[in-house]
UniProtKB/TrEMBL annotation:
UniProt superkingdom: Bacteria
Residue intervals of the Tail specific protease domain: 254-454
Organism phylogeny: Bacteria, Pseudomonadati, Pseudomonadota, Betaproteobacteria, Burkholderiales
Name of the protein this chain belongs to: Tail specific protease domain-containing protein
Organism: Duganella aceris
Signal peptide: 1-20
Alphabetical UniProt keywords: Signal
Amino acid sequence: MARRLAALLPLLFAAATALAAASDTATAVATTAGTPQTPDQWRRAASADIEAAYQITLANHPGVHDPANPQFAAKLDEARKRGLALAARVTEVGGYVAALQLFNTQIHDGHAGVVPQQSLRTPWRSPGFLTAWRGDSLYVAASEPDGPPVGARVDDCDGKPLKPLIESNVFAFSQRSDELGHWWVYARDVFVDKNNPFIALPAQCRFSADGKSFTRTLAWRTITPKMQQWRNQSYNGATLPVGLTEPRARLYWVAMPSFQPDAAQRDAYRAMTAEVAQHRQRYLDADAVVIDLRDNQGGSSIWSRDFAKALWGQARFERRDTARSAGQQVWWRASEGNTAHARYIVGVLKDEKQEDYAAEMTRIADGMQAAQARGEKFFVNQSEASGTATAADRAEDLPGDAPAFSKPVYVIVPGQCASACLDALDYFTMFPNTKLIGAPSAADSTYMEIRMQPLASGLASVIVPNKVYVNRPRKSGQFYTPSIYENALVWSQPAFLKTIEADLAKR
């Protein structure tokens, strides 16, 4: 029950986050008259919201009291100082957003910080082309008629090497450059003007193509809908719907673009898993199975876990998972806000008639409240502890196991793969016939089950994780590196098939 609840909770917390975000947007729209209008009002709003985000994080985030992360509180304090220093220079909405983002980058944790409302987003601009990161460089992925040719490499801008420019203009205000997957997703934003007044946009860049070098002066203009479509596909490509297909005989393609599925996608996941379980011999005889995680940004680990059980065999999967996570514990941060949110999740589960899950979540909420009454910072949920692994748990195969599945499995990894997407990689890579292909993944901290707490201004919400994994096998900040990098500029199914077929031929 505890393992199943742990897999379900990220989806429930994500749903709660979506509800909060929708509520926040409604609030922002309803209070337009209170939205800052003058430079001084924007400056005061930035300072007040950074201070509020600091206080809410200090009171609720498990990292503040995590004995495995003694630097967290100092990072949070430094984030406050740096954020407030930049907030003092804010004069309009773009500066407000940038100051909040600087606060986030100083904490350096994707599950901490403050998120401005989408309603504050102003029109973006581009210089008439968009780029994609492949290997260790940016390449032109799409271009308007007056732009540089598609496929050209960007060498430098304004005499400045490209990587330092990306660090100062992108990663100083967003994401984490030490996670290699973030280069594949966010480095391209060096050529997207998001109205940050604290950076200097590149004016002239040098490119190379077909052995020739040339220079272009950049003419920044509003991104057109077509350019926005190109941008959305510049790192994931055109992805496939949830489902199982056979692009050629005996090669099976499993598309998992989201672990936050809607009703139709949930049905598709169940059908796909049932197909593998009921006709397993078909996959035992396959040339290869491809699991496509493009576009996936997490959600619930139920979907990948159930599929892995069907493919590799339930008993074999559960033994390896037990051995992998032996000694892991879950500590819930016992604060007033977190406990209230746990009670809210109980209500969601009851409304969905998931009484067993609701009872377990009630026990967690009660434990958090009792810990809080005792003045303790955490409720340690013993029912979520993984215990120790036995010799049988570590056994490769045991009598009664389903036939071993040993055919090649290729898992396509996008650079933004995090949260439950990383859980999927944890599951799939327990088996030696799995090979990762694509880009490095993103990384998680050990802080999970986030909620979004709206600020009084209506302009932003604070990210608050409710629990911390202790002794998790995958360490905080650890990411996956592919065995095969996919450097094709267009991440299409045919491109990946070509790479996979070449690797199969070597076998």
